[in-house]
Amino acid sequence: MFLGIALAAGLVLLAFSLYVSEVVRRGAFEPTRLPPRFDLEVLHVADDRVTLRPLAPNASGHWNEAGLWGLRWPEGHGRVGRILETGQNEVTREWTGFDGELFPGIGARIDPAAFPLDPRVAFGIEFRTVRYRSPIGQFDGALCDGSRATWVLFVHGKRAARPRKPPYSYPVLPLAADRGFPCLDVAYRNDRDAPASDGLHWYGLAEWEDLDGAARFALDHGAVDLILVGYSMGGAIVTSFLYRSDLAARVAGVILDAPVLDLKAVVDSGIRRRGVPHALVRPGLWIAALRLGTGWAAFDYLKDAERLRAPILLIHGGSDPVVPVAGSDRLARLRRDIVTYLHVPGATHGTAWNVDPAAYESAVCAFLDSLPIAT
Question: What residues does 93 pair with on adjacent strands?
Fold first, then answer.
């Protein structure tokens, strides 16, 4: 009898662990292409203000929080800013439209992208398409020319919606372009119209080769040194490049915004948020690693932090529910000699600029101006 109970319990544990491993694979490693969720209703629109209310209890975060946020609806995009009035389950905010017509009754959602997506529209910055290669094929990047011999390479994070082609309006972009830096928006595997390899995200273990191809293009076309800017998973790709590429010595500075520095900690946190019992998390992660053929230690970019050499501006929100801020805290402690750390209380994943744009831009400008780089 006891043997039967033990066997049944073991089968249940195995089945649930397999389920956890599948959730990990789909949630972390398979590129997601989720349709946008418009969970806010527009109640009123005027020239400079908009009133919103949520359509569900778990509607888009930040709709009633201070900061600068994008507002998207099926046919357009704008920005909401200062809160003007609050009512019962609704808020009125300053409003600026970018494209499309917003009208009462339409469904919308909050988006951290608080600029027009096209840098030509957002900042008046012109880009041209350039092509570079990695071991898996040819990629299209977007280059803004500049007068200096230091190029800034931007590496985006994992995207839940269908990936768009570069360029993209990063808040760092105008700060770099205004200083004369050529800016290259980098595409990597699994991006739209890009080579896909095995179709999985590898958090830098594979994608660093695509960034390496972009870096070689920059150095072959006039760059003397490089500044790398990585967001979320892009931070993992940048850090992996610093460990693996023979071009790492050409990197004069690094900006990491909410970087994935220890994927196991990120996945563990996500699984726990789903309410999975602690006793079942470890076997689920073990099976996931077994199925992927790679141990979790390979995704830990903190264990060799002493090998990092370039100055780093590290930015992370204190309330990030996706990538625990503890990873950035740890890097800041481990490498006080090279890390400048901007910790933004209250900011969630990748929203440090939205919550405190003045502090964000001040930190970026001071960092860029402090680097001993080619003119």
Answer: 50, 83
In this prediction, residue 10 carries a pLDDT of 47
| Structural domains of the chain sorted by starting position, each given as residue range(s) with its CATH number in brackets | 40-111 (2.40.10), 119-262+300-370 (3.40.50.1820)
Rounded CA-CA distance 100/98 in Å is 7
* Radius of gyration of the CA atoms of the chain, in A: 22
Q: What is the b/e burial string over 208-241, where b = at least 16 CB atoms within 10 angstroms of the residue's CB?
A: bbbbbbbbbbbeeeebebbbbbbbbbbbbbbbbb
Please name the residue ranges forming H helices in 32-153: 119-123
Express each pLDDT in 183-220 by its tens digit: 999 999 999 889 888 888 999 999 999 999 999 999 99
Per-residue pLDDT band for 15 (boundaries 50, 70, 90) equals: low
CB-based contacts of 196, cutoff 8 Å, min separation 6: 189, 190
